[in-house]
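Hi,

Apologies if this is the wrong queue. I'm a grad student, and the batch job for GST N-terminal domain-containing protein from Vermiconidia calcicola produced an output file that my downstream script rejects. I'm not sure whether the problem is my script or the file. Here is the sequence I used:
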Amino acid sequence: MSSTMTKQDGSESDQYPKIKMYTNHGCGWCHRVHITLKELGLAYEEVFVDLDNPRPDWFLELNPRGLVPVFQYTATPSSATLTLTESNHIVAFLTDLYPSHLTPAITTSLSPSTSPSPDADNMAIAKAHLRYRMSFFIDTFFSKVNPYMFRLVGADSPQTQAKLVDECIALLEKEIEPLLADANPYFGGSDRITVVEVSFKLKTIEEFNYFALKSPASLTPLENLFTHSLNYQAMTTPFTLRLHDFADGQIFPTSLAQRMTDSVKLPNFARWLDLCMAHPSVTYVWDKEYYLPRIVERLPQAKAKYASK
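Support response: The file is valid. Your script probably expects a header line. Output copied below for reference.
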């Protein structure tokens, strides 16, 4: 049975809305929601879900897929409790419900190619362009760069890993670096963390972390299918964080972390990554010293799973 523990995160029993999150701090998808809750200043109850064992029936009733996070939201004492799954949709729910700096206001700095006119048509264009830029950034990272996490895990020699690091850094330089040209300091010129950072940090790390922490025999056919589709769905910071932190010489080569933060070759990306990795809303649930040894312990299973064909 999956063991759970519950804790209260600064909330009172009679406080509304009531938020309960079923989570695991090693999971990048959960990390995305944790960052969002922290940035919005929302109190919540946390239920820890053990990912090393099959999910108990009570959890499968909440999410038949057996995946975390599961998010429950009760607006008022008389409201029905909403149960949400899938981190990208949970983040969208929260950012729609609580407009904030996570979805920046439209300014000429956020959409530099649009007219500064306050005309309604130009505002509509600016909003659409900003959404496009945010979506394009997230999709570019996960479709171009994120797959290298799994290629690195499956590499059969240090030489192969070194070649993959070269390719990954080249893609960051070509595809991601130009998209951060106006980061000041965060995406699109925002002075505070945005939904792009929330999404970007989570994706790469969480997918590997979630499945590497599980026994391969415990993966359902649906979860095996899910491992191939996750690369194109998630947001970013939890995943760039893990990509960097996994470069410890055992999981990934140390050269990966060094080159990701090379301020000469990747000045925009390196500055942005350093800020994101140090942000309090990012670090408060990520315990590198605890999770890295667990990943190393399961590395042979992960290598077999992602071995180059």
